[in-house]
Amino acid sequence: MSMINNILLTGGTGFIGTHICIALKSHCGGLVTLIDRSLSGGIDPHLDYVLIHAAGSHNPCTDASLREGNEGYAGNLISFLRRESVRLRKIVLISTTSASSVSEYGSSKRKVERIFLDFSKSRNIPLTILRFPRVFGPGSRPYTNSFVATVMHLASSKGEDFTFDLSSDDEKDFFYIGDAVRLIIGEVFNEEGGGIREVMGTFLKPSTVIARVKAWTHQIRQGYYFHHDSKIEKQLYAHLCYCLANGVIEVSGRTVNDDRGSYRTILANSNIRQMALVRISHFKERGNHYHQSKLELFSVIEGVVLFHWENLLSKESGCLTLTHEDEVSIIFPPFFLHRLASGKGKDSALLVGVNEAFWKENDDTLRFG
After folding, report:
1. What is the pTM of this model?
2. What is the pLDDT of residue 282?
């Protein structure tokens, strides 16, 4: 049995862990067993597992609770694995670049790494430690583990005029959750241990992030979508759209009629990198995928289309029905699974705009089923 089919995951309800669960489902639909802090879970003693350790404490009240949430839990987990004779074929440990710092948090994370290094060496289990910089993206929690999430929360709740007091404006390294999960899943497939890997992020000043978010918030509230420049800005923008939208985005168009017919504006002031004409045969479906950072716009130009969607992070879902007569287009933010079907037993056609050109090898689009 392929190792990807048997995963043990700690921290599965946290920010990174939730995204790992989603990605594993879209990659393989395999068995993922969550281990919570009570160290319970349905572990089959006859199966070989890959352990992904994503649990940890980021911002506890005291140094004691920090140590208990990190090296304390790691030690208890290792004791549990020994006691239950869990068969492991590899370990992937999610750590942080702060592990090389002199802070109390860094010291705590280094001790976790040492616990796993000693265990893997004693059992001859391949181990990869991934040290990530500041990971951001949809699902990260404001005021706890992400400066970016806090800024996005302020933008979505207060608009572009929000204030944020910076204690320092030194450049900091940021890394998008989609890229982080791709590295993690890649290590799950790699049967060898990779040692300690320092993952490099993109350095930005916090004031630059705040200024960009304020400008984008103003544009989005005016109905202008699809703006981005560099890769990191596209990812920050995707995070903001997810926070501001809080659901599927409906964009109203404008139609002008005269004796020649009609002219309909679908999306103005956009930065669409690819436009496609898509046809859906009756009783057929398209899509059943989600994007990690792309935004995708749909406008029905023929027939009736049913848009089935699910927010993979909040688990909310719904269905929208649009016809070619509706002056509304639909934008799906990142991490919204969407599936399209023709309605009323007839073929349909749509114009589809994307803020990043699609190619077959593009790993931003992940399919379900």
Report:
1. 0.89
2. 84
